[in-house]
Design brief:
alpha/beta; single chain; three-stranded mixed beta sheet; Rossmann fold; 13 strands; about 15% strand
Length: about 325
């Protein structure tokens, strides 16, 4: 596989965790023409602004990593914002890309698109075969709509718009807000602060029994660039017209209790971990079948222990400021 390093590439959401990792990956590979636009210069929920941007930029490839994201608490608290903003972003960007002749686009989704009780590990064919997890249903529906947008433009106009569905991500650039973040950054911050305060225990939402799969964001970025540039023939051989997305993960999961214990070890916290079973657990298990991605030549390289340790150093020990928003 050869990377199209001379292409003019737009990374939507370049300041987010995934988008910034994609930019790092592209630069490391030698890409010379990477286009980005901060939110105050380009509001991706504004159709007119997005159309004008594409008209002026002559883009060849688009990585659609921009999204409103958050954990269980944020999804439960702001369902309208999660479905509205994500629908607007993907509709505006995908449609504008098509209208302005962009042939290649990669849409980044989420493993929450699959039914709550989908067979494990979840294959791409599980999409739309059952009810979604209620706590993040609005976000999941928006991401499913993004997949179907890509499929529809491919089918009607012959575009090459692909979709990657990552498992739970963590790493540099994550959001460490104690309520609006995902499980790893929220727990990492809580355990870190408990160690500094000498607190005897840390209370964790849920029973600790749900199983989750975690992927370092630098692995996700490498997968995104790989999937964008793999040949159309190879990609088509692993998909079909109405199942065009590819799972991206490690193929390995752990319980939330095991994750918390690993984080306590990384942080050096000696106290108790207390699980509050009155709080929601979310989906019982979320493990992706990653056979398609592996057949296309990509495999995760950063193990969870290594990734947690490097993430903790970067966020809490090396003088970096936390992203609280």
């Amino acid at each position: 596989m050869q990377h199209a390093i001379d292409q003019r590439v737009f990374v939507a959401g370049h300041r987010g965790m995934v988008g910034s990792a994609i930019v790092r990956c592209l630069r490391a590979l030698g890409y010379r023409d990477i286009v980005t636009a901060p939110r105050d210069a380009l509001d991706l929920t504004d159709q007119r602004q997005v159309a004008a941007f594409f008209a002026a930029q002559s883009i060849d490839q688009v990585y659609l990593a921009a999204a409103k994201v958050g954990g269980i608490h944020a999804n439960n608290t702001y369902p309208a914002e999660f479905i509205h903003q994500n629908l607007m972003i993907e509709a505006n960007v995908i449609h504008a890309a098509h209208l302005h002749g962009v042939q290649k686009l990669l849409f980044l989704g989420s493993s929450c698109i699959y039914p709550k009780l989908a067979a494990q590990p979840m294959t791409e064919e599980a999409l739309l075969t059952g009810l979604l997890e209620p706590t993040n249903e609005p976000y999941a529906i928006a991401k499913i709509a993004g997949i179907k947008l890509c499929e529809s433009y491919n089918r009607q106009y012959g575009r090459d718009y692909r979709s990657a569905m990552p498992t739970n991500l963590y790493g540099p650039g994550d959001n460490y807000h104690p309520e609006n973040s995902h499980v790893i950054p929220a727990l990492m911050r809580r355990v870190h602060e408990a160690r500094l305060a000498g607190a005897p225990e840390v209370v964790i939402w849920g029973s600790g029994t749900p199983r989750r799969e975690f992927l370092h964001v630098d692995d996700m970025a490498a997968a995104a660039v790989h999937l964008m540039n793999v040949s159309a023939a190879a990609y088509a051989a692993e998909t079909r017209p109405m199942c065009s997305h590819i799972n991206v993960g490690t193929g390995v999961d752990v319980t939330i209790r095991e994750l918390a214990e690993s984080l306590a070890q990384v942080v050096g916290y000696p106290g108790r971990l207390v699980f509050d079973s009155t709080k929601p657990d979310g989906t019982p298990r979320k493990l992706l079948d990653v056979a398609r991605a592996e057949r296309l030549g990509w495999r995760a390289r950063i193990g969870l222990a290594e990734g947690l340790a490097s993430t903790y150093r970067e966020a809490f020990l090396d003088g970096a400021s936390l992203r609280l928003g």
